[in-house]
Amino acid sequence: MKRILLTSADYGLAFGVDRALRELISAGALSAVGCLVVSDLWSREYLPLRDTVDSVRHRTLVGLTLTLTRPFAPLSMRARSQFGSRFPKARWWRLWGALRLLPDEMLAEEVEAQLTCFEEFYQRPADFVHVADELLAVPALACVVLKQVALRRWPPRIVMPQLGPRAATRFARTARDAGLKVLERGPDFPETIDEAVHVQHLRRGMDGLSDRTVVFCQPGEIDDRLRRVEPRARLDTRSAQFAFFKGDTFPLLLMEKDIFLY
């Protein structure tokens, strides 16, 4: 028996995505969701999510997708004064992190603002924190984020970024030294419309994973808002993954591989 945490990290991106994720939670086909509190939809969409999670028998993890890149706007005053109405691109963080010139105090304030926003609306601590765009792989940024998360009264678990074996070991040790628990990462579901590829991923891509490994996916229903922010290939991927997870093949494959989502 193996348990994986099948996770979508973008609740709040669009109404179609949110509806799809709630449907999968109700069907028992999704283990966890990460929420975009920087989205203007969060204040309207958190309650349907909480009601859905509370109505099912299985426990679905609900966490924060810490977001520091465009097209979203910062929540903290310091970040707004530096970036204005939109975060920079991911490469800005990577460059300044590599140069060890990150504005640590501003970053810490933004992390705190997003964690607080999640808790104030959802009325519960986040079960985990995932940093979007793999920015947790930037050591200088990770140091600030881990330190800030560790200050919480009930620190959420940290989803590990995609790292090589040695870097992953160092990251896990750093997180443990800060008193934090780490959720390992598995291979994301492929961005394709071919159901056969998804089937093969579930049959072979889950081999050798540790218990409670996070596997990211991107299901969703397409709406006008999503069409404005994502390319056609990503939209097709979302539709294909949503159809796969709510179809009859997915639960049969889980049984075949002796995989559990909860």
How far apart, in Å, are the first and last alpha carbons? 11 Å
User: Main sheet, how many strands, which sense, barrel?
Assistant: 8 strands, parallel
Number of helices: 11
Return Rg in Å. Answer: 18 Å
Shape: globular
Helicity level:
40-55%
Structural class: alpha/beta
Mean pLDDT: 96
The counted number of beta strands is 8
Q: List low-pLDDT spans.
A: none
Order of helices and strands: EHEHEHHHEHEHEHEHHHE
The share of residues in extended strands comes to: 5-15%
Short summary of the structure?
The chain has eleven helices and eight strands. The protein is an alpha/beta fold.
Helix-strand layout with pairing:
Blueprint: E1 2-11, H1 15-26, E2 32-35, H2 42-55, E3 61-66, H3 77-83, H4 90-98, H5 104-122, E4 128-131, H6 139-150, E5 157-159, H7 165-177, E6 182-183, H8 195-204, E7 213-217, H9 224-229, H10 232-246, H11 249-257, E8 259-260
Parallel strand pairs: 1-2, 1-7, 1-8, 2-3, 3-4, 4-5, 5-6
Helix pairs in contact: 1-2, 5-6
